[in-house]
Amino acid sequence: xxxxxxxxxxxxxxxxxxxxxxxxxxxxxxxxxxxxxxxxxxxxxxxxxxxxxxxxxxxxxxxxxxxxxxxxxxxxxxxxxxxxxxxxxxxxxxxxxxxxxxxxxxxxxxxxxxxxxxxxxxxxxxxxxxxxxxxxxxxxxxxxxxxxxxxxxxxxxxxxxxxxxxxxxxxxxxxxxxxxxxxxxxxxxxxxxxxxxxxxxxxxxxxxxxxxxxxxxxxxxxxxxxxxxxxxxxxxxxxxxxxxxxxxxxxxxxxxxxxxxxxxxxxxxxxxxxxxxxxxxxxxxxxxxxxxxxxxxxxxxxxxxxxxxxxxxxxxxxxxxxxxxxxxxxxxxxxxxxxxxxxxxxxxxxxxxxxxxxxxxxxxxxxxxxxxxxxxx
Length: 377
Hints:
single chain
């Protein structure tokens, strides 16, 4: 089928997250990472040879920060057919043939990766957000993935004052008594990067104040908090607090693990004596699972969830009337429907249906009343 099609086929297992409604900054960050993961998987000597085709996604200035010897990623050009005039020297002619084949393979590989990423971007974004990029004759084939991502950031991903307020509220969210501090701080780093993009300066002392307040309010680290407050002022930095709290969390978990092991064994052993006749099979299994779950620490949430799934299955198999998996409600993150255009929309006040926003409408935009309803599958 050719190199181009082979490249597209080799990338088909990469998944991309669907964006419903207006693409926000966080959505586009995730989409960019997904594009980078796919592009990086196809090797090339272009751009230093260490990051595959990532150079077709990120800006040149950012790429050279990661590339070997600050090499630039150069968009390959079509080498064209092999020239009619070749060198009469056999050795030189053989080298020229090999070079031409390599250039052709490099070009077709690039086209395959580019076409796959272009299709992926078009598929995950609602049509109205990229309609202005589409050509009546070419469709999106004349648009590069980098160009599509840049357009989406310019027209959908900007953060306004409402977004900034929401991010600050997320940054101040209390610790849930479960996740590791390192996870809490990493999420805060991500939020801070978004705020910096919106023009808000990074503020480590403020983040330290938020973090100290939430861990102190939890009441689970009183000795550690006292130890922290006794440190010299110069040592009480946000960077040091991150390390300090993760260590305190780890030490607490070690203590809890020891306690859980002894307590859990006692519970299970008690279930094997004369009272076993009063405990049905599902309850005994639950006790055994509880011991394992107690030993698992709060930074091992994935394993804990697996244990809970096992418990559900046991209960459904052994307890009459237990709710089936189908009856257990699930939650999904969905954007509210805009009251103006009746579509998922993060910012109803910026809806194109409003006359106040008509300057932002794409050239081929149509009001909701004139749009054809999508066919039901």
